[in-house]
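hi support,

uploading two proteins for the ticket. first:
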Amino acid sequence: MRPFIFKTLRIVRNNKVKSALLLGGTFSIVSAPVYVYNAKLSPQIIGTAISRTSRAGWTVVKAASLFVINTRGREDDAAYMSRVHTSTAQMICDMCSVNGGLFIKIGQHIGSLDYLLPKEYVKVFKILHNEAPHSTLKSVKKVLTSELGVEIDQVFSEFDDVPLGCASLAQVHRAVIKKTGKEVAVKVQHSMVQEHSKIDTITIEFLAKLVDKVIPEFQFDWLIDAIKRNLPKELDFVQEGQNAEHLSMLFTDCEFLKVPKIFWDYTTRRVLTMEYCRGGKVDDLQYMKEQGIDKNVILGYLSKIFSQMIFVRGYIHCDPHPGNVLVQKDANGRTQVVLLDHGLYQTLTDEFRVSYCKLWQGLLKGDSEQIKKQSYKLGVGKHYGLFACMVASRTWEDITGSGMADANSELDVGRLQEQAKAQIPEISQVLNFVPRQLLLILKTNDLLRGIECTLLERNTQGVGTFLNMARYCIHALATHKLNKSKSMGKSIVIYYTYYVCLVKLKLLKMIYLISLTSIGQKFAAILPSKMSF
């Protein structure tokens, strides 16, 4: 089967559209049953597996073929190209929604890359964060009984019929543990997601290679590799529970971060029982207003939490979309951020983490040589310029002109998305080229920036986040130097330099806050906006 696939792919180079249509028909009719047979799936899901694979094959081939046909000779017509991008994205998104499972997971990943992909694709695929299909109550109870070994009413005195939320791989129900009376949230994996994920991975990998041949500027090797690496981890709820406990341990002293407690007696690879946390989604401005929660405080908390994860701990929650981040007030009236869904984490080596810190230090200073040096150390190589723009969500001119630790620097999302559309081939190359540790960091950065733009209620991102990032970046580098220091004199110099940098950051923050006032705007010309670190 594999030689046939690659032989067929070579044909595509000669006549892209004709070969794509031929390959689509062949794939839909022949490949699906062959793949299903080779995957040795259980008889009860063979029918759905064939229909899902055939639907995916035909939809992607049709979308790719129509894209090539409709854009030929009209690449410079921006308005027309935007409509074609939108219709192509919608066609594929509809298929992902019907197929569910891994297809929705991929769509959600695409929808989270606000500053790396054209806005048409991001806007269309974002809907999948809120419209994942749900399993029937009968199916949920069947999984629970199979995993826990007893009937559901022997474990829970209450179990809500309607789920609190549904995702691509599982859904969550509120329940009450019969033995203790403790209110919990029970995450139950969709019944056939394990079996479907095998055939879905093979199908998606094949289709990605096909799109690469038909439309070379769209390369998805990076996405396929990420799925193959991360999906097994996300399907293991025991691993997710361990991730949650490890994060809770790392942030023991952080009063504004809440990580739900795991109930191990009622947790398996397909069922996760955790503390039930009330709250509203982080992008629900009306909820925050009603509860008296200051959105600027939430922004500060988020930037501190994730800056500490990335620069100091090297242990990163990589799926902070709004559905996984709640805000609440605890019993004492203190505002908290609640982090959910701990299935996807990235652990950084100390060497990688320090190099990434130095890269950000270069971005904050606008030091092109340091950016280049650290990008090479991270394995990015000659693509360091575009990579820096993708990490910082700034143009190269903005980065090297004033640097990011500039009280007048703000991110213009609309402008970046337009530039992303013009640089699809280059961005695809960078995403295929960079180390896989960086892919999840880029995704996390984009999700957090999307949340910030929502809370600020504007299409820009302020500098407050970058000042918090600078603080933790400087702290991590100072700690690294102190650990390597072998003399008291050198350690004293490191401490002194560190505290001088902290004072500069505080001054920059004051200048930024003053610049937002009417008085500050009058004296903007004489207020310093940048300091070296």
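and the second one:
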Amino acid sequence: MMKSCDEEKPFQPHHSLNEKRKDERETWQNERETFLSALGAVVGLGNIWRFPYITYQYGGGAFLIPYVLFALCCGIPMFFLETSLGQYTRINAIDAWNIIPIMKGVGIGAVFLAMYFSLYYITVMAWALNYFYHTLRTTDLPWTRCDNWFNTNSCITYHQAMEMNVTGLFGKENKTLPIVEFWNNFVLRKSDSGLESIGEMDNWPMVICMFVAWAIIYFCLWRGTKWTGKIIYFTSLFPYLILLVLLVKGCTLPGALSGIQFYLKPNITQLARAEVWVHAASQVCYSYAICFACLITYGSYSDFNSNCYKRTFYLSAACSGTSFIAGFSVFAVLGNMAQVMGVDVKDVVKSGPGLAFLTYPNALSLMPAPQFWNACFFLMLILLAVDSQFCALEGLLCVFCDKFDWARKNRELFVGVICGTMFLFGLLFVTPGGIYIFEIFNTYAVGGITLLWLVLWQSIAIGWVYGSRRYYYIVEKMIGYLPSPYMDVCFRFVTPAATIFVLVFYFFDYEPLTVDGYEYPLWANMFGWVLCMSSFLCVPGWAIFEMYRGKGSLAERYHNACKSRISVPEFSTKKTMIVLSSSHPTPLI
């Protein structure tokens, strides 16, 4: 660690909020809540649900190489940047960027992402609620039988497949497992004609589950941090118990080794595909909750002198470690399914959002008391979804509560209006064509390109426009010492270079969206790009607006647009013997 240059009295920032508002700022009750809230933000569905299916879809072990690289050069530095920025400014994800007003578009873009994320991601929670309901029975689970109304003549149970010589049976004779038919024909009730026939709102079990999901989120959020802080003790820790059970059971199944080998053995040829790098980078952002407004918001609820630097490394290790362990659990089960079905691991199921809903229940259904273990697993998914959902939604709500007294004073009503509105829009995702709309949001609205674009500009904002050394001095005022040069190098060089590389690679290798052989029509891809651009253009759009409303020459307007509107401590360095005023826009780099 770099040692502090001097000892001074603790510095507290002042910003545009009036003193009464600042005194009323909600905070976590203690350091445990601070840590667990951040743990809930970074350990969620992105680790247990999204990471395994993205890894399976993009080459198994080959995907882990860019994932680890991006975790080191983007994930850890940007997590630290956002949490420390929120902790210092103690304000929402948009106004926090008043530290560099010309870059305020980064915060606006992040709020758009949080809105899109909250709108479509809760569908996963609704799926989990549907499964959880069906575990509350004493009879056989519906995804272990072939005599349900949604089953077809191609259905063959898992136990029948294990007893038979089924090599080629699932390919040539088009046989399917009941878990696959439960997912496609009961949960999704998927349209065969894609977006051309979205269908009617007749999937009432999913409509009810969507309503229950939003009701749970409402009651988690309506009381603010005092209530949320208590929930996270359970929602953050319980999933690790279930994950441990899944890991042990999965690794002891016959054929598990072949799945683990597929997971760990990289196919280097996959690295020539741009989408592998894009999805690896986006998965890091998903897992670390970067650019979703929640890290700045949660940081703003922390004590001013909380050690956000040390916490960054603990949470980063927990985040990537959880994803890695979840991958072991899923691929062990995939290896077992491959042996039972007589196919290669890569051909067991079609990769996609349903992978976790196809693999985990299979493994748990082979255990004694399968209803109990399946109930525990889907309860875990629900809790992870709650963590992910209220983290993103809290980042969105905080913007309005900081801006408008009515929203802050009538939080229960305001949260109810937001949740109710999003529920109505979210009903699109439970129609027969809902899964196709889900993929548009997953690929474009909250896709890797938008996330990387915002990561690029926020690293440039702190590393170059404000100056990473000046920012280090702010961090020192909070934690008492200067961070290591690793963050400085990432802010200025490594993170911008990595994101530019992937963005350029992607645009040269771009292909329209295709899912499970279904090619999305032109209008659907265009709609996706509109959603993407709504966040993408916030950065240049706001910068142009700041320059336009300024006065004086172009240089003077830029100078003023870079001046901090939040008081910052005077910066001094023995190396250059320069003292910068609190609003000096010139970065010291």
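thanks. also noticed: The mean pLDDT is 85.
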